[in-house]
Amino acid sequence: MVLITDNFIGTIETSYTMKNDKSTKIKDLEKSQKDMTGKALTTNQGLKVNDTNNSLKSGERGSTLLEDFLLREKITNFDHERIPERIVHARGSAAHGYFELYESIEEYSKAGIFTDTERKTPVFVRFSTVAGSKGSPDLARDVRGFAVKFYTQEGTWDLVGNNMPIFFIQDAMKFPDLIHAVKPEPNKEIPQAASAHDTFYDFVSLTTETLHNHIWAMSDRAIPRSLRMMEGFGIHTFRLINDKGEAHFVKFHWKPTLGVHSVTWEEAVKINGADSDFHRRDLWDAIEAGHYPEWELGVQIVPEEDEHKYEFDLLDPTKLIPEEMVPVKIIGKMTLNKNPENFFAETEQVAFLPGHIIPGIDFTNDPLLQGRLFSYRDTQLSRLGSPNFHQIPINRPVVDTHNNQRDAHMQMSIPKGQTAYFPNSLSGGCPHLSKMAEGAFHSYEERIDAKKIRTRSESFSDHFSQPALFYRSLADWEKEHVAAAYTFELGKCNHDHIKQRMLWLIAQIDDELAKTVANGLGMDIPKDIEHPINQAIGADADVNKHQPGKKKNYLDKSEALSMANTRFDSIATRQIAVLVADGFSMTNFQPIKDKLEKEGAMIKLIAPHGGTIKCDQGMEHKVDASIATTESVLFDAIYIPGGKKSIETLIENGKYIKFINETFKYCKAIAVDDEGEQVLNHSFVSKFKDDKAVHVNDSAANFVTSIAKHRNWDRREHSDKVPV
Fold it and tell me: Which tens digits make up the pLDDT trace of 498-556?
């Protein structure tokens, strides 16, 4: 029997460990859990409580007495229940899981997580939006945070990234400016969770390094179909260090096994109204149903001697390495298989720090990364109130910790012994130091010989080439969505000079894109704009040194940048709305249901009312949602079985017709059987029954194929005509 070592030293598990078996981290968290079942209500001091409904008064209608310690404890705790929300990434969802390595990369890294294929490393992953508050909707057009905490045998490693491979700025010094610009405008505190306003575009138009991440934000990558269907990236170039002390540059990629899919902007707007918790609910429900989200971990590895090989700078966080130049090597898989027990205790209190690394992984001189190494720790001190935030259960490593750091606010440990310093003789020199051969961390010995200077490398000044590469790589429908996003966002700006600057900058990326946006705004593209073009420079800086040059074309297209080239081989977890009423045909429904569920889809009966309905065979079926309480945009496809009585009811309800029209408008698959075709005849779809994703009395297999393709984008030429 093959044995695999879990991440708690000394614990052994067998290779047939099930996905839902408890990891060392889950076991660790259970030590801090409280089960209230069958327990008496007590105070925080253990005193049993007789009445938690009434304060202590001087008579039935008298004043409340100051001596009421029960009231004061309860109210005091309530008054202090909340901690400051994150300044960015405030709205998040998280889950537990594990990471398994496919093959060792010991030639590049000595990190146990990258060398030991028998490990099953616990992880906790938090997904988030960036700009909005905790109460903002899930489907805002925004970058998504993708932060992974690995509880390894060597300590905790945090890979803190986003669902886009680059960032808006090149230096951490600009981060407060970026966030102040994209947040609600300070005079009126609007708009919430939206970049479509003057201050953001004023900043973007004057800070041209933002243009690459910005065009990603204008693409469908900014409105994912599900957190389970988006990529993750480490953003920065890191280092891998092997046991010989040799270094390689690396970029980290998370690739979802379900493929990369998005909603349309119009759907996002409607989903935010219909279910503002759409992503959060989707992640939770999928895990509860046993449809565990999975991502494969890939690495792009570049030898140190190739640092200056490319026409872009590896240390520039606004640049990606095209996969055609450096292929992504898939080395492992992450599975999320358990929801948190308590949102506040885990999802809200988890603290991710890019500075949490382990032997075999190290930093580079990326100036954005270097600033993040300070900022994240400082933020957690503010949010969690103490340098002891690592003692909060969700943040605890699964290995023991021993050091001379003492006391401070909310100290949870009771360190024993007379000494708290090193070196010492009174405690036998303990806790003692470790050699590198014993697993101690050692920073990569990079040679540094330079002047102290406040500037930026000239190699960071190409601000147009990669946005242009991204746009050229997109499918036609993706390009249309980018143009529409620019048009919408700039249309929300009130100052024409900002729009004009943006139009000129977009034209440097792509002429046709700029023309489309200009037409949508009813404006002309200016022949030139105020100089300097990039105004994010020092007062005494050499202006010309920091201006973006003309775009280069070192690669015509990169297939990995387009969602048209993602996986379309699965309908697992896709939500299928079945439109029914009393009397629907079980003969039609059963084989479709069986096929869809076999492929992992989620079937939801949408009826005129809640409760139950009866099919034409007299069987009762639980209704998943009434037509009045749900919307078509929450589903990936619809199916309508026959049954004369059922179809007559559907035709009489205008929302069913709207449901069908919207599904067609957003290019999703539709299937009907027998009398179900009559409902189509009352909808816009009646004119387009020959559409390749409209199935009338067709096989279940063909319907599955259409759902797997996510959308029939060929239909989009008709979509604007659909009356919804």
Answer: 999 999 999 999 999 999 999 999 999 999 999 999 999 999 999 999 999 999 999 99
| Catalytic-residue membership of 53 | no
Pair of tokens at residue 253: 């990629």
Rounded to 10 deg, the angle between the 367-384 and 175-182 helix axes is 60
Catalytic residue from among 7, 162, 163, 337: 162
Q: List the structure tokens of 272.
A: 């935010």
- Residue 395 a catalytic site member: no
State the pLDDT at residue 518. 98
d(CA 541, CA 532): 12
- Measure the CA–CA gap between 516 and 486, rounded to whole angstroms: 10
Token pair for residue 12? Answer: 């052994």
Task: Write the secondary structure of 480-517 as one string of H (helix), E (strand) and C (coil).
Answer: HHHHHHHHHHHHCCCCHHHHHHHHHHHHHHCHHHHHHH
- Select which of 7, 89, 390, 710 is catalytic: 89
**Burial category of 135 from C-beta neighbours within 10 Å (exposed 0-12, middle 13-18, buried 19 and up):** exposed
Cis peptide bond prior to 532, omega within 30° of 0: yes
**230 is written with which tokens?**
């988006």
Q: Which residues contact 652 (CB under 8 A, 6 or more apart)?
A: none
Q: Is 288 exposed, middle or buried (0-12, 13-18, 19+ CB in 10 A)?
A: exposed
Pick the range with the lowest mean pLDDT from 16-30, 203-217, 458-472: 16-30
Structural domains for the chain: 92-395 (2.40.180.10), 473-564 (1.20.1370.20), 568-719 (3.40.50.880)
Residue 469: which H helix or E strand, with range? helix 465-473
